[in-house]
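For practice. Supply one:
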Amino acid sequence: MGIDLSVIWFVLIVFATLMYIVMDGFDLGIGILFPFVRKPEERDVMINSVAPVWDGNETWLVLGGAGLFGAFPLAYAVIIDALTIPLTLMLIGLIFRGVAFEFRFNATPSHRPFWDRAFLGGSLLATFCQGIVVGAVLNGFPVHNRAFAGGPLDWLTPFSLFCGFGLVVAYALLGATWLVMKSENPLQATMRRVSHGLLLAMLIIIAAISLWTPLAHPAIAARWFSLPNLWYLLPVPVLTLAVAVALWRTLGNVSCHAAPFMLTLGLIFLGFSGLGISIWPNLIPPNITIWQAAAPPQSQGFMLIGALLIVPIILVYTFWSYYVFRGKVQTGEGYH
């Protein structure tokens, strides 16, 4: 039995996407949380908690996009064509957030509120558009003769907009629990309170999407609720509930600093797994599989050599940067 390069590349792209969601998620979440914090010195702590690592987090987005382009060109072409508007807005949000991130440190006191609002707006726009992309992919795309056959606004549906809102809540929860780990009172106490509300909102959103998708897509309903699949997949919702209960408890325990963030990562991973289970093995729902969208094996094999060289380097760099800048961020401490 030969090596299935399409499956290997699918795993690599999913891994890169998950790493991006985890790492840039709390980074974007910090911008989303700005309205909950008014004191300039506390906002500085929030920014400084990610200042040493934020620009490296987006490496995973580049890796995932490049992998999709090379390994699954049909999927890349359809997704880019179908989602041109939200993807362009996402990039604008990321660029604007990056500019605001740097400029606010050098701005005069009178100009800093403008860059704070720019940082908030860029974070919200990028996150909301990413959620729209997720919702649109779950809804699927019409494809004819290996090209997108829909309109430029097919992505604009209630479900995709709801997914955009859901991702805003998820990233905000990641950002809040990151700050529980990286900050001290009174900012930490504020983030614990905010996290409780965000956790409740996120559970409602997970429940809504878990009901919405099978009701709208019979194939997804059959995947989750037919026997014996129901018994095989039951651990996903059970673990989600268990992790949520543990997260609620650790948020109320002032001696727990890292646990809330780790549990939030688990919650994000379980939600991401549920979405993957719903569409597998389709890369372009509802009916184009990873093998139908794949590039020739020669191309996938050539790219895989480069990926196997570069991914360990990215992992080592990422680990080292987070290790060097571990620990609490103090007021007045910065990296600019």
Q: What stands out?
A: The chain has a mean pLDDT of 86.
